Structures are given as C-alpha cells and as structure tokens.
C-alpha cells in the first residue's frame, strides 16, 4: 500500500512539475542606516520569502557543491559606492550533505543576506543581480535563479566637503530607503514572465505528512521493542501488585489504570517537548553536524552497547529513585503519577538509548516531530502497563523473566554498537579526519553483525547468559536474517552501491578499492573504445562527465546531430553541479543495470548543466526571448533552453526528442522508482520506432 501511494504521489509531482514554471521567492531589498554621509558604510539587506516546502542555499559555505547565493560580479554597476567584503548570510542552517560530501547552509521560510558597501559620493547607486538556487525535498527538484536589484541613495557630504560648500549649497537630505527601493521587489519581474500557474505545493505536502506518520510508526515499534528489555519487563509484576486491591470499586481501578498510562505518556512527551522547544532549530543543526555532539553520541552508544553486552550495569542513583518510589507508596492519584515516574526512571537504562535515538533522528529544527515521536513511543510503552493495571489476572499467562530477556539485551547491544559508528562517521566526514572511510565502515558492520549471528546460534556466550540447551526457531530465523544481511554487505567492500544502506554509509568517494570502476576503466581501454560509440569527441568533455560510464555529449546541437546520424532518440538530462536530487537519481536509478543498458545502447545522451558558469565565446552569446537578457555562459544558455523550449525550470528534468526535435514522450522529473524510469525509456523507444 505504501509503495502504491509513493508511485501515485511521484506521478502527481511529475505531471505537475513537467508542465509548469515554479515561481521564485519574493525578494525585498533595503538598506541601513537612513542618514548617510560620504565615507560611511551602509548595509544592504536582501530578504527572501521562500515558498512552502522549498529552501534556498546560503552564501556561507565553500564552492564545489550546491550553488552558493552570491552577487553576480559580471554586470554589477557601482556608482558612488564600493563593495566591502562578500555577501553574508544571516543565521543560516548548517548541515553535512552526503551527496556533496561537505557542510552546506540553507534557509527555509525566510532567508536574509547582507552586503556592506562604502559610500564614496553624494549620489550613489548599485544595480546587479543575485544568483542563487532553490530546491525542494518534497518534489525532488532544484531551480537556479537570478534576481535583479537596484538601489540609489543620496548622501550628505562629509565634514571636509561640507566646509567647502557655500551657504546656498546645503547637503541633500537623506532619502527614506523604502522610497528608494519601491521598485526593487524583483520577484514582480519574474512573476510577469512566469505567467503560467505554479505547482500547488499545498496539494503535495501530503508527502511530509506521510513521512511524519512513518516516523511515528517507527517510534511506536521502538516503544514495543522497549517492553522486551530486562529493565522494563520486570516492572509489569510491580505494576500489577500496585494496582491489585488498591481501589474501592472496579470503576475507580480502571480510572487509576488509565491515569497511570496517561502519566507515562505525559512524562515522555513533555520531555520531547522541552528538548524541541528549548534547543530550537539552530541547536538541532549543530547537534547533527558538529563534531562534539556526534563524538558524544558515539561514546554514549558505545557505553550503552558495552552495558547491554554485560560488561557493567548502568543504574540511576539509588537515593533519587528511592525518593520517587516513596512518593508512589503514598497511594491515591498522587501515587499513581509517581508510580509512572518510577517506571520511567527504573527503565531508563534500557529505554534511554532508544529514546535518544528518536530525539536524534528527529533533529533538524522541527518542533512537532520530536513531540509526536515521543508520544508514539510512550503510547506503545504505556498500553501494556495500562492493560495489566486493568486486568491484573493476565500476569499468570506471562512468560517468566529469565535468560531470554538477557538475550534481547545482548541483541540490542550489538545494534547499539553498529549504530554508534554512524555518529563517528558524520564527524569524520565533516572535519575530514579520514579515520572511517566507506570500506572500513562496511568491514566493522560485517564483523559486528557476523558476531550477532554467531551469538544467536549459541556459538558465543556472554557473562549473564543462561546455558542454551537447544536452538529455538525464533533465534534460528533471526540468525538467518542476520547472516543474509552480512552477505548483502560483502559486495560493498568491492564498490557495490548497497542502496539500502545509502543513508548510513560514508560516500563512495571515500572508498579505497572500487572494483566496478576499475573494470569499467579497463573495458574502455583508456577511453578509445568509449569514443567509438560517439559520432565525434564531445565538446566540453574536459569540464563535464556523465556517471556510470555512460558516453554522451554536453552540447545540444552536437548531440542532436549525432542522434540523427545514428537514428536514435535524443535523451536530454537537464542537470546541475549543485543539484542534490540529480545526484540521487544518478546514484539510485541510473545505476540500475536495466536503466544503464538502455541509456548506453538505445539513446544518444546529452547532459545540459544549467548552473555552470563557464563563459562561451562572444560569437555564441545571444539575447533571450524569455527575459531579454544576454546569455553568455554555458549554464545560462542551457537553462534558457529548458525554460523557453519546455516551459520548465526545475532539475532534474529528462526530455526525449526525435530527429525533428519533437517530444517523443512527456518529460519526466524526479522519481526514484526504477520501474517507472525503465517504462519511461521503453515507451519512448517504442514510440520513436513507430
């Protein structure tokens, strides 16, 4: 059902995205201070109102990844002022991007940039354009934009100049910047050009809701798993004892039991609320990317793993637990709450890592997500205790606490040990320590899960384990599942992508030995064989590449000529250096053998980078009919081609044309379904042959 929903949603997004231009953010420009003298510094503020479910990249990270927001120096006109420093971002969110293997900054909702200028004349002005990139994790698209701006102001002369003026030569009055910039809302220009309706992002925001529901389901399952830990399971008889015979009638007993369950939920949920409200978005981003918290979480998970494996026990101070327990002994509704509080505290040594994982997983500046995650976790945790409080006679049917509970604890220990290295990996990638590259990470996981498989088979026995006289069927099935996972990871040592683990593994660029790449290089014979599949050497081959050994072009006219010569449809890939979702499509969809075979054999492929700044020879410049601007660079010409010809401005975007430059099939946007992409290629090939 979930897969069906995803396919329907992806189809909806694709159909909408392929037919409409996405409206840019609304920009406003202002400057401070209002009263300006020659020689003063003025701060120009650029503020963007960003559409829901979209974000723009900031200006405060290194080049080489997504498009950094910047003032375009080519065409910048300065009169009576000069730039001071570079464009600065105001409170952008930082995170490590696995695709680009670097830390990037971004804004959602609202973004602000500031540029300082020094006034050098009484009449001063600046005009130019901001270059930036807007992306969406909902639609899977990225769009490069340029926004024009213009500011003029009048400054009072400085003291030296004022002394040389005659009485009739009064310094001009500083003009209100709001009057100066009345026409600087450059989004109006883009709005006039983009007359077609944009995608209704409110309609497709159901994807976020789906993600939130999935997170809550996982948190609920984590709550159920926590019930099987040895810290929690023994609390069930204590709960039954507390609620047995302590009420005057059945109705009061049920009310107390429900209050008990609600108290458990409230304690956990309030904890999640405090974490999300007090820490806030900036802390969450710091939490997920900075080396200090990641190393801390790595050490915490290692400590919990060693405790679960039986090296030592983790307990809260007995004096604190006893004081809370004394309050529970007082009985009544007050005692019910403290009984719930006692349960939370006593079970902390087993639920702490699970709860911490939920809170860390929800880190990202959100408020609702950790609250709902904690609610779902505590709901699953509270339901059985509430039911046992209502029906204490169920205790007789419960399996006795024993060695099987310690086995659960040990399994959790192995899992905690494996997950700990994800935090070390994040810190290692952000700060380029080169301690934990991809193949080393995979080796560690293979060893950990192989040891877990041997433990489940009874080949390894830890300190608190009971003697296992026979192997139960559940343990046998779990061991089979574990060893299957181990075997799945082994090809990753030789460069296999291991798509199911893409969110956990370090990037492929850190892999020391990539057998697939070596085979491909040897097969191409140093490039001679690869060139023979093309009509002529590709233009701009020194600047661009197509992944997975696909041979193609980077210039539309050259590719079209080859497609006509070979009698194949032309596959156009509108992409970008800074397009995260383009890289994801290439890694998860294009890498599939069925897709690769078709792209290599059935089409002439051309990759058109829309954000490349390489300048073309002057005789190739032209003025766009879309915005009446001169297009001088490779990227601007490719982007203009996409907008004017296909009425689309988002990437990734895939177009297939015949020899007459007519559409063979409706273009396709971001869609991670391999099946859908194969059908897209096959249907295009079929129609072309008709």
Structure description:
- The chain has 690 residues and is α+β, with helices and mostly antiparallel strands.
- Among the domains are: 2-198, Immunoglobulin-like; 533-689, Glutaredoxin, CATH 3.40.30.
- The protein contains 23 helices and 17 strands.
- Strands 3, 4, 5, 7, 8, 10 and 11 form a seven-stranded antiparallel sheet that branches. The chain has a four-stranded antiparallel sheet with strand order 1-2-9-6, with no helix packed on it. The chain has a four-stranded mixed sheet with strand order 12-14-13-17, sandwiched between helices.
- Strand 7 and strand 8 (102-108) form a beta hairpin.
- Helix 9 packs antiparallel against helix 14 (403-431) and helix 15 packs antiparallel against helix 16.
- The longest helix is centred in the middle third of the chain and has 40 residues, at 250-289.
- The protein is globular, with a radius of gyration of 31 Å.
- The two termini are 36 Å apart.
Detail the topology: elements first, then pairings:
Layout: H1 2-17, E1 26-32, E2 41-49, E3 55-57, E4 70-71, E5 77-79, E6 81-89, E7 93-97, E8 102-108, E9 110-119, E10 123-136, E11 141-154, H2 159-163, H3 177-180, H4 187-193, H5 201-204, H6 206-226, H7 235-243, H8 250-289, H9 291-309, H10 318-328, H11 332-346, H12 348-361, H13 368-390, H14 403-431, H15 438-456, H16 473-489, H17 515-523, H18 528-532, E12 552-553, H19 556-566, E13 570-575, H20 580-590, H21 593-601, E14 604-609, E15 622-623, E16 630-631, H22 634-646, E17 653-657, H23 674-689
Parallel strand pairs: 12-14, 13-14
Antiparallel strand pairs: 1-2, 2-9, 3-8, 3-10, 4-10, 5-10, 6-9, 7-8, 10-11, 13-17, 15-16
């Amino acid at each position: 059902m979930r897969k069906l929903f995803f396919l329907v949603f992806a189809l909806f997004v694709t159909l909408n995205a392929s037919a409409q231009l996405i409206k840019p953010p609304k920009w406003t420009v202002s400057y401070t201070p209002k009263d300006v003298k020659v020689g003063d510094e003025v701060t120009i503020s650029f503020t963007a109102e960003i559409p829901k479910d979209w974000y723009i990249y900031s200006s405060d990270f290194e080049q080489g990844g997504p498009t950094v927001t910047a003032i375009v120096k080519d065409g910048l006109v300065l009169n009576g002022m000069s730039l001071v420093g570079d464009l600065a971002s105001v409170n952008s969110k930082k995170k490590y991007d696995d695709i680009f293997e670097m830390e990037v900054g971004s804004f959602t909702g609202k973004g602000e940039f500031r540029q300082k200028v020094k006034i050098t004349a009484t009449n001063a002005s600046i005009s130019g354009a901001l270059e930036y990139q807007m992306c969406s994790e909902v639609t899977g698209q990225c769009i490069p934009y340029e926004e024009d701006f213009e500011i003029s102001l009048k400054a009072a002369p400085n003291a030296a100049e004022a002394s040389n003026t005659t009485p009739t030569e009064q310094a001009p009055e500083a003009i209100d910047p709001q009057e100066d910039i009345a026409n600087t809302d450059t989004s109006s220009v883009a709005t006039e050009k983009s007359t077609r309706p944009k995608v209704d992002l409110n309609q497709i925001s159901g994807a976020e809701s789906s993600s939130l529901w999935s997170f809550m389901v996982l948190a609920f399952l984590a709550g159920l798993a926590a019930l099987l830990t040895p810290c929690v399971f023994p609390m069930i008889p204590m709960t039954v004892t507390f609620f047995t015979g302590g009420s005057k009638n059945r109705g009061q007993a049920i009310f107390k039991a429900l209050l008990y369950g609600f108290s458990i939920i409230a304690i956990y949920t309030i904890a999640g609320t405090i974490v999300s409200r007090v820490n806030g978005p900036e802390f969450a981003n710091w939490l997920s990317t900075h080396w200090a918290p990641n190393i801390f979480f790595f050490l915490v998970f290692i400590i919990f793993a060693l405790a679960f494996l039986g090296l030592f026990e983790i307990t809260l101070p007995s004096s604190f637990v006893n004081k809370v327990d004394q309050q529970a002994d007082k009985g009544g509704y007050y005692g019910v709450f403290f009984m719930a509080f006692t349960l939370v505290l006593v079970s902390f040594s087993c639920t702490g890592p699970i709860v911490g994982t939920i809170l860390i997983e929800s880190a990202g500046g959100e408020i609702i997500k950790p609250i709902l995650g904690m609610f779902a976790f505590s709901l699953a945790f509270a339901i059985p205790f509430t039911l046992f409080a209502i029906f204490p006679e169920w205790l007789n049917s419960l399996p006795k606490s024993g060695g099987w509970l310690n086995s659960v604890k040990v399994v959790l220990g192995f899992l905690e040990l494996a997950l700990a290295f994800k935090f070390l990996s994040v810190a290692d990638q952000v700060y380029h320590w080169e301690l934990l590259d991809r193949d080393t990470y995979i080796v560690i996981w293979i060893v950990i899960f192989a040891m877990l498989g041997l433990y489940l088979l009874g080949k390894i026995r830890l300190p608190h384990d009971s003697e296992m006289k026979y192997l139960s069927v559940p343990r046998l099935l779990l061991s089979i599942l574990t060893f299957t996972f181990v075997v799945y990871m082994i090809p990753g040592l030789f460069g296999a992508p291991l798509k199911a683990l893409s969110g956990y593994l370090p990037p492929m660029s850190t892999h020391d030995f990539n057998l697939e790449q070596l085979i491909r290089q040897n097969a191409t014979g140093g490039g001679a064989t690869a060139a023979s599949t093309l009509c002529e050497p590709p233009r701009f081959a020194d600047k661009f590449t197509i992944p997975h050994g696909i041979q193609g072009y980077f210039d539309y006219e050259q590719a079209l000529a080859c497609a006509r010569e070979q009698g194949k449809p032309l596959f156009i890939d509108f992409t970008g250096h800074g397009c995260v979702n383009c890289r994801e499509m290439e890694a998860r969809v294009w890498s599939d053998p069925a897709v690769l075979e078709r792209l290599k054999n059935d089409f002439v492929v051309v990759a058109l980078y829309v954000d490349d700044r390489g300048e073309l020879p002057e005789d190739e410049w032209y003025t766009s009919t879309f915005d009446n601007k001169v297009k001088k660079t490779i990227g601007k010409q490719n982007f203009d081609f996409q907008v004017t010809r296909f009425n689309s401005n988002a990437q990734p975007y895939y177009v297939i044309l015949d020899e007459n430059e007519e559409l063979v099939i409706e273009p396709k946007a971001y869609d991670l379904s391999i099946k859908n992409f194969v059908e897209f290629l096959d249907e295009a090939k079929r129609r072309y042959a008709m």
